[in-house]
Write a structure and sequence with these properties.
It contains nine helices and seven strands. With 251 residues, it is an alpha/beta fold. Strand 4, helix 4 and strand 5 form a beta-alpha-beta unit.
Length: 251
């Protein structure tokens, strides 16, 4: 039996990039996958369905509490109880590094709104169903910038530090109900939205040099840890942070 058979897993921010890679990997492990994004995820859904696996998707802004609650309700209607959530949606690829004094209040607020409040809204939407089922796996995607204090990305770094803190609180508050919450922390990953950016080559070269395993990090490198955190193999694990970055950060 595949490791995620008979599980219903939501992946946010999965129309492209790492989120799409996660969704396809989970489907390959037998999960029913539901994806949402502010961009239409219909291609990812079609790609999964072509493999014979079950998938659905919708355009959804995770900062809109009603929209994400409606999406979760639709997933439950079609696939049954949501047993897994991967909070992947975040603002990152569109950001350009700059000294913190040059970050506008509007840009700061938008990054925190999506990366932190959006994560909160999505967890809140799935929580009643997970509590009713007495089981759930929440995987929040953090970032190695939080450990490094990466200059030029104060708002993004702060948001991912908040995601780790939020995860620990969820683990404490929901553990008695059979719900596990953990973080998966990637290093600098050459996803679709990153690989072509002007700053990528220099940042990637510096990051690769800091790794014990000195090579590029690709989206597929994250699949094993993500599947582990969603599977029964990690049922006695919660409130933790797994760093997958080739040994740049040692958590």
């Amino acid at each position: 039996m595949s490791r995620l058979s008979n599980r219903t897993i939501i992946v946010t921010g999965a129309a492209q990039g790492i989120g799409a890679v996660y969704a396809k990997a989970f489907a390959a492990q037998g999960a029913r996958v539901a994806v949402c994004d502010v961009t239409d995820p219909k291609q990812v859904v079609a790609d999964i369905q072509q493999t014979g696996q079950q998938a659905m998707g919708a355009v959804c802004d995770i900062t809109d509490a009603k929209a994400i609650a409606d999406f979760v309700a639709g997933v439950q209607d079609q696939f049954g109880p949501v047993t897994g959530l991967v909070n992947n949606a975040a603002i990152f690829a569109s950001l350009r590094p700059k000294p913190f004094e040059q970050i506008s209040s509007e840009e700061f607020d938008r990054v925190l709104q999506v990366n932190v409040r959006g994560t909160f809204e999505t967890i809140r939407a799935v929580m009643p169903g997970m509590r009713a089922a007495g089981y759930g796996k929440i995987v929040n995607i953090a970032s190695g910038t939080q450990f490094k204090g990466t200059p030029g990305l104060l708002h993004y770094t702060a948001s991912k530090g908040a995601v780790i803190a939020l995860t620990r609180v969820i683990a404490r508050e929901a553990g008695a109900d059979g719900i596990r919450a953990n973080c998966l922390t990637p290093g600098f990953t050459l996803s679709d939205g990153i690989a072509g950016a002007d700053e990528t080559a220099a940042i990637n070269k510096m990051t690769v040099a800091s790794r014990c395993l000195p090579r590029d990090q690709m989206p597929d490198d994250l699949n094993g840890a993500a599947i582990f955190l969603l599977s029964a193999d990690s049922d006695f694990m919660t409130g933790q942070n797994i760093v997958v970055d080739g040994g740049s950060v040692m958590n």
